[in-house]
Amino acid sequence: MSAQPIPERVTAAAEGDVVVFLIGMRINRWRAVRHWLPTLRAMPRMLKELSRDENSGLLGFQALAGSPRDRTVVQYWESREKLLAYAADRNKEHRPAWTDFNRRARGSEGSVGIWHETYVVPAGSYESIYFGMPKQGLGKAYGIEPVARRGERAAERFASAGGRAREASA
């Protein structure tokens, strides 16, 4: 069942810094299934594990459509520390998958590629608006609120977020 569009203008209810983690893979050689299939299967296991654990720090994620050979997931995290803790935890899905990928990569001659980027976006340096859409991105991860609470225009929402961050630190 697909999510229903929200008919009014809303914005993400995020407060403070926002941690955005982009991760992806690319199948470079379709016939090298033994090299890319384990990589392809690893991400859903990790996302399921993280989603089940309320204390994991993962607030939300969204897979992006791309070419048949590319897979990308946008993730929103509670903090950089929780993201790094998950990545390093030997008892979670990531470490064994990363070890397995590195072992396979040595003999794969580039059959599969991976990438990731992490951004810590300071309060006051992001804004959002959603209209006629189901919850997406930051709004899905942090919840939504009426756009009027933060400002009708993007510049107002930037100023509003920066002001709340200064008030919180005072």
Automatic annotation (TrEMBL):
Protein origin, superkingdom: Bacteria
Pfam families: Monooxy_af470-like
InterPro entries associated with the record: Monooxy_af470
Protein name, entry field: DUF4188 domain-containing protein
Species annotation: Streptomyces roseoverticillatus
